[in-house]
Amino acid sequence: MTARVAVITGGASGIGRATCLKFAKKGDKVVVADFNEAMAEEIVELIKAEGGEAIFVKTDVSKQEDVEALVNITVDVYGRIDIMFNNAGIGAGGMILEQNMEGYFKTIGVNQHGVAFGIMAAGRKMKELGSKGVIINTASVFGYLASHGTFAYQASKGAVRMMTQTAALELGAYGIRVVGIAPGGVDTPIIQGYKDMGIIDKLNASQMRGKLIKPEAIANAVYLLSLDEADVINGSIVMVDDGYAS
Ligand code: NAI
After folding, report:
1. Which residues pair with 136 in a beta bridge?
2. ipTM
3. pTM score, two decimals?
């Protein structure tokens, strides 16, 4: 069987890192896309040391030319692209009336535009190559539920939901599947930024296990969604939240 090629943005840390390792362990070739060079190179080395195959492509997902280059380099190196995991994200906090506008635009730029650029670049390339690929986008339970102090983040993740549904509708005509995940509270560096706001306590109290989810558990869900066996899961955002939104 030909190995699949998976591009994973935000692959240097947290959910992205765990997903790179999961796909590589399963025999897929992995393209680690991130702007954190040192951490991404470390993942590539780790994958290679375990007998897997991976490359790093330095990418700022908020720049469309970077994302286009990422997809082109992937196909230049591996000849195909089967999975595009648009996962890189940041979370500038702030109450609406005191919103720091730089943080607002940055959050929308990475979380919303970054996913849009990924859908467009991968969608075009998959159509061109006739590959029946899958695009997986990271939304959040915060794309569904309101919370104090996360205005820009909430807006960006709500957008990811609708972009996923709309892209599934349009790209389905070419055999390309588009799905999303909505994680609950996951134990990664991003969430530590919200510690002082009581958000971690709230997440812990509402998740069935009473604690943050391990990134490896989210990676398992992403992997399952990438499989052909999941081919009728299309246009959906799958809650991977240990019951938070229930
Ligand atoms: P993380 O902070 O561990 O990882 C985020 C990665 O994205 C980092 O490697 C960072 O360098 C990279 N990144 C940030 N901006 C980038 C840019 N402009 N271009 C390229 N790479 C960039 O955080 P985590 O938790 O792994 O986040 C992954 C995704 O999961 C994000 O979209 C986040 O919003 C989402 N999420 C996380 C939750 C959590 O509780 N940790 C809950 C729900 C969603």
Report:
1. 85, 179
2. 0.99
3. 0.98
